[in-house]
Amino acid sequence: MEVIQSRDNCTIKEIKKLKDKKSRLEHNKFLVEGFRFVSEALESSFEVTDVFISESQLQKWNDFFMNEKLQTDTKIYLVKDSILNSICSTNTPQGIIAVVKNKKLNIEDRNGFYILADKVQDPGNMGTIIRTADAAGALGIITSAGTVDIYNEKTLRSTMGSIFKIPIIEDKDFNVIHELKNKGFKLIVSSLDSKQNYFSIDLCGKMIIAVGNEGSGVSSEVKALSDINVKIPMPGNAESLNVAIAAGVMMFEAVRQITAVD
């Protein structure tokens, strides 16, 4: 375990840069905070390159048996509490932060469903969609250009660790959508203008379920690619659903149909 005592240490300066999206993209790395989150990262298939632990949390390090979870090449650094706090983004840091190397995940060509998050802006909504998709057994999540950065600390916290358990694929030019459609996947778009009830369609094959921006809904670009336009029936007085709630409703209707067949 290497000891770092200065905020001006070059390693600390480099890690701080990962708080910025541009740097995360450039280095293909992101940060996770908290003992539970770092434990999940270490136990996942993602590579954890560095772990920083504050001096005041060494006992907690032992209580969580962190040494037993370390990956072969993970570097461990012991730092002052003030240094760790300068790296963290949370208001109440838990005394540990890790650097995780992102990885490219391939699409799967089999029956099931993907979620397309089209320009979803709120980190909490995006994190909830990721967590729900993981719970629903989705094949993966596809994000369009303009969607919130899934590796910012607010989104990551909202996923509750599901970020390590389900493929997430960025699709700026809809190349992935075109590839999936060529493989037989149908793109389902939720739209308040549609007359077709979502619960009346067959969801047991290859599907991409699209949900859109909190204010403007699914973009015109995605609508132009759609195979099926549907709406979730809302007999009450509300005009629309929160995007994460809508995504959950649609995903678990697919789960209901799939499990009923099985």
Summarize this structure as a short list of keywords or feature phrases:
single chain, alpha/beta, 60s Ribosomal Protein L30, Chain: A, 2 domains, six-stranded parallel sheet, five-stranded mixed sheet, 11 helices, 11 strands, elongated
Short description:
The chain is α/β, with parallel strands linked by helices and 262 residues long.
β-strand number: 11
Q: State the helix count.
A: 11
Strands across the major sheet, in which order?
A: 8-7-6-10-9-11
Tell me the series of helices and strands, N- to C-terminal: EHHEHEHHEHEEHEHEHEEHEH
CATH superfamily of the largest domain: SPOUT methyltransferase, trefoil knot domain
Q: What radius of gyration results from the CA coordinates?
A: 21 Å
Give the number of domains.
2
